Amino acid sequence: MAMKRNRVDTTEELTASFATKQQQQKQPTEDQTRVKAKESDPPKLGHFLDNCHNCKKHMPVGVKVHMYRDFCGFCSVGCREIQMALDNLAEKQAKLAQKQLPSCSD
């Protein structure tokens, strides 16, 4: 059975291929370029800051956001106060409903 003989690279060919591999490693890939572009963008915390929770007005990045509770961003103090009043009203209605329910103690 005849064996296939492997080609032996010369030193010039080895150094040339090594230099090519080093250049390819130095060039950033598309993914690395995207990551760098994303790092330069302002941080994005979540979609809940895109629009006002009350009036649904778009809030661009860099605009002052008025927060209330966990994930509610508002464009103004007025919008935030409306939501706070609605929440207080809902709490009062829930307490009133609890009082009106007959007790189940037999």
TrEMBL record:
Keyword terms: Cytoplasm, Metal-binding, Zinc, Zinc-finger
Gene Ontology molecular-function annotations: zinc ion binding
GO (cellular component) term, any one: cytoplasm
Stretch list, region Disordered: 1-43
Protein location: Cytoplasm
Basic and acidic residues bias locations: 1-10, 28-43
FLZ-type zinc finger locations on the chain: 47-91
Start and end residues of each FLZ-type domain: 47-91
Pfam annotation, one family: zf-FLZ
Chief location of this protein within or outside the cell: cytoplasm
Domain of life, source organism: Eukaryota
UniProt keyword annotation of Zinc-finger present: yes
PROSITE patterns: ZF_FLZ (PS51795)
Family: Belongs to the FLZ family.
Protein name: FCS-Like Zinc finger 3
